[in-house]
Write a structure and sequence with these properties.
Helix content is 33%, strand content 19%. The chain has 316 residues and is of the alpha+beta class. The strands form two sheets. Strands 1, 2, 3, 4, 5, 6, 7 and 9 form an eight-stranded antiparallel β-sheet that branches. Strands 8-10 form a two-stranded antiparallel ribbon. The structure holds biliverdine IX alpha. The site of biliverdine IX alpha has 19 residues, from strand 5, strand 6, strand 7, strand 8 and helix 7.
Length: 316
Amino acid sequence: ITYAFSIFTSTRCCGINNMMRPSMASATSAFSYKKFVQFALEETRKHAQLIPSPLQENFNCEEAIGGKAELQMHSFESPKIRLLRSLSVEGSDGMQVLDFAIFPKPEFDLPIFCANFFTTAMMNIIVLDLNPLHDVINQQNYKEKYYKHLIPLGIKYAELLPWGGKITSESIKFFSPIVMWSKFPSSQQKHHVLYSAFKDYLKSWLELMDQASGETDVSQTMFNLEAQHRYLTWRAEKDPGHQVLRRLVGETHAKEIIRSFLFNGVDDLGTKTFIDYFPEYRCDDGTINQKRSMIGKSFESRPWDTRGEFIGNTLR
Ligand code: BLA
């Protein structure tokens, strides 16, 4: 097996201009997430001056083992953004993946922009959300501050991209009342809807960012920082995409991409461990239970009503 890592093969491809390269998918389908990334960077630049992140040097473009996919990574920061990063994958078999997130600086209690799309020739598994930094089930004022005016947007897309069925119950606490969680067979019409939703959600997040003023209270900043670290710790350990990534680039390099790039900050924004945050995953020998979920899957239908009230009363 030959490994092709960015660090060793950085001359092979990429840099931002690579977005202009003909897509690997174009041979099999017209669909690609590259235009999503391009839109997102252009749109964000209307609101913030993006400067390349130091991560860009090590994480940019690479080929998966055996040349079966191409991975592209971008990362930026700005005065209010700690990290905007994007991973897109185009497989030679038609697989298309986008993992796009924007993490605010800790002075801001802004939600985390989250677009996670996994597409094969047949199926799509998507999560699109402004993931709340704080509790939106019990903390009414945080929910109202960021989501009240966005409920109609959520309702609009919930009709077009219906609830995807049961999910890892733990995940729901990381989702907002306007989360799009959906599974659907590939079609041009659905991809068009997804693109619109992505654009609308991103624009909404950017408006929230424009309005946000930085926290001056140190304890509130620390509260935001820990919430972001907890989020990163969850995703760096339990994100459903890890398995695919390991298959593409191998165990060691997948771990590097996950901890240093996708969920950058997990190793330096805080000192608490996964078990500190999620003690129910602790095995008798102190290690982390490898199960994705301790509670199991639930929420057959959308656990938020049309007023944005949480109605999934089975949540522990
Ligand atoms: C499935 N991805 C899922 C599911 C969710 C998410 C909820 C349904 C399975 C489940 O119940 O967990 C996404 N879960 C999230 C997100 C958060 C969360 C965004 O808790 C945030 C807090 N998905 C990707 C990437 C890949 C990917 C990058 O985002 C691949 C590289 C793959 N996701 C993927 C696959 C499945 C999946 C293959 C189906 C397999 C499974 O259900 O485990």
